[in-house]
Design goal:
The chain is an all-alpha fold. The protein is about 65% helix and about 0% strand. It has a two-stranded antiparallel ribbon with strand order 1-2. Helix 2 crosses helix 4, helix 4 runs parallel beside helix 9 and helix 7 runs antiparallel to helix 8. It starts with a helix and ends in a 15-residue tail after the last helix.
Length: about 270
């Protein structure tokens, strides 16, 4: 684990210098907001692509939807609002009020329709997802203050690696599963809120990583070993940073413009 986190730390330095610092603050923020919102919602089944999510960010609900539902559009629009709420308040400590407000904004226009709940309220019934039945919901909700206080103390002490704090919070929050809907999206938002407090890049989990992500959560819980999820978070972040660095390098060094006529018989 130490070697993996050292690799991550070195790559973060290169990523910040080569990618993050080359953007304006506003443009880099919007780039991350669109990418993160598209992928986090996609993990939960939303079918908007990254490009469509970018268009939704630009045009809002006035966007002409093609083969996409209004429900999905509102799910992403609310995700934008929750993202902006959190990342405009990085100086705020992690509190139960902050988490409930995040979930309220995140599900403002969907939870009444899908679950019949008011946004921002804890569940009042047993929770399950996929093949996992979570613990007694009353006990889980009572444990929320302890999780939040422990996480905030870890943030303030900064004795653990930021990735470890983020992953540990995520592991425990997902298995408490305190809300009737939006636990995954809320958990991923708060985990990245924690990372941002330490000026760390986002961990963006896409639909293609969903099965590996769920398996890491299950294995972490089964073996009572949060390092399994920390490793998944770190490897996911490393892969993303490497991909973006390589994209920038290729488009900088290997971009060729030519207006010469194509040779006869040569296809495009």
């Amino acid at each position: 684990m130490e070697e993996l986190l050292r690799k991550y730390d070195l790559l973060v330095l290169e990523y910040n210098k080569t990618i993050a610092e080359s953007f304006s603050t506003e443009d880099f923020r919007e780039y991350n907001e669109v990418l993160f919102s598209a992928h986090s919602c996609a993990v939960e089944g939303n079918t908007f692509t990254v490009d469509e999510t970018r268009e939704l960010k630009e045009y809002g609900i006035n966007l002409k939807l093609q083969n996409r539902s209004l429900y999905e559009a509102y799910e992403i629009l609310d995700h934008f609002k929750a993202y902006e709420f959190l990342f405009n308040n990085l100086q705020q400590p992690l509190t139960e009020v902050l988490i409930k407000q995040t979930q309220k904004i995140l599900t403002e226009n969907t939870i009444k329709f899908s679950k019949g709940y008011e946004p921002g309220e804890y569940t009042d019934t047993q929770m399950a997802a996929g093949d996992t039945v979570f613990g007694d919901y009353k006990t889980s909700i009572k444990r929320m203050p302890a999780l939040i206080n422990s996480t905030q103390n870890a943030i303030e002490k900064a004795e653990l690696h930021p990735m470890d704090i983020s992953a540990r919070f995520h592991q425990f929050f997902i298995y408490l599963h305190p809300f009737p809907d939006g636990n995954g999206r809320t958990g991923r938002l708060i985990s990245n809120f924690i990372l941002a407090k330490f000026n760390q890049p986002h961990v963006i989990i896409g639909a293609t990583e969903k099965s590996t992500y769920i398996d890491a959560l299950k294995q972490s819980a089964k073996h009572k070993d949060t390092e399994i999820l920390t490793a998944f978070f770190a490897q996911t972040a490393i892969s993303r940073m490497q991909k973006e660095l390589e994209q920038k390098k290729n488009l900088t060094q290997n971009f060729i413009m030519s207006f010469k006529p194509r040779k006869k018989g040569k296809s495009i």
